[in-house]
Description:
Two copies of one chain form a homodimer. By secondary structure, chain A is mainly alpha-helical. The first copy, chain A, has helices at residues 8-29, 32-39, 43-50, 53-63, 77-87, 90-103, 106-109, 111-138, 152-167, 173-187. Chain A is 72% helix and 0% strand. The interface between A and B is large, with 44 and 45 residues.
Amino acid sequence: xxxxxxxxxxxxxxxxxxxxxxxxxxxxxxxxxxxxxxxxxxxxxxxxxxxxxxxxxxxxxxxxxxxxxxxxxxxxxxxxxxxxxxxxxxxxxxxxxxxxxxxxxxxxxxxxxxxxxxxxxxxxxxxxxxxxxxxxxxxxxxxxxxxxxxxxxxxxxxxxxxxxxxxxxxxxxxxxxxxxxxxxxxxxxx
Amino acid sequence: xxxxxxxxxxxxxxxxxxxxxxxxxxxxxxxxxxxxxxxxxxxxxxxxxxxxxxxxxxxxxxxxxxxxxxxxxxxxxxxxxxxxxxxxxxxxxxxxxxxxxxxxxxxxxxxxxxxxxxxxxxxxxxxxxxxxxxxxxxxxxxxxxxxxxxxxxxxxxxxxxxxxxxxxxxxxxxxxxxxxxxxxxxxxxx
Lengths: 190, 190
């Protein structure tokens, strides 16, 4: 049988389907059979192209470009945080939350998956936030010795993780805007 | 065949094994076969006593008594938070984190599991924290109008959820003590 190459469009479609399945059933329950059925491809093609389920999942996650925070610059710390919150719509937030839930156990056992999740959802946010805070320090809005500075990512990720558990509701912009004012900016002394 | 009853000791042992398996493989991958093998019991016994996997898991979680915060009362908000952190040892924290990871996706699809996780890990903490904060307000240490008051659970749960993701390390007492001083008490204006 001749070796075929997938077109970039077909590959993108396939990676999107893998992420959808991860959100729906989680990593443990995701099977190559389900990916093949959802994408109308053969399992032989999937194994030939990606070798294994972890490789396929990691490649699909790396292919997905995250929202960039780096180009936000409103001139104030509060303005920047509000822009961060309002540029991600409620639907995308729920998609990211679903991806985190689907992977949270598996990443603990699988270093490659952990690294892919970091690259997709964690590191772009961390470097974007670091930049935002550094500008706040340079403008004199933030005290560089404030011990809360290094915990801004923890505060924000906490809002995502705790909303469903504590309040039984998904994260949305209205909640995040109030949380930024009530917790993040207060801890930062803004 | 005669219907047998399990002794309370045998039942506790079995429930502990179910929680261990949840931490190790997560809810989706937990099978009645694995529970039977781990506990040296027959699947027939498991199904006769609990009917189904969700029922067995929920009953096992309800059986596990959570750590109580309600009897902490050191006389200051900071002292109370330090007592909360230091009364849960690092090993127990990692066990609770593992349970959360193992259940985070499944609880989203299963309301009974969600309720059991709330009763086991969330509600005792929420009511304990509410009491701690109410005493701080009564002593005049906390401003009752501080908007951060209602987000203390989110800040603390966030520390657990974000530690591994952001820093690649498990939560321990040293980290939590610094987080309480740097974030929680600052946001509360203590």
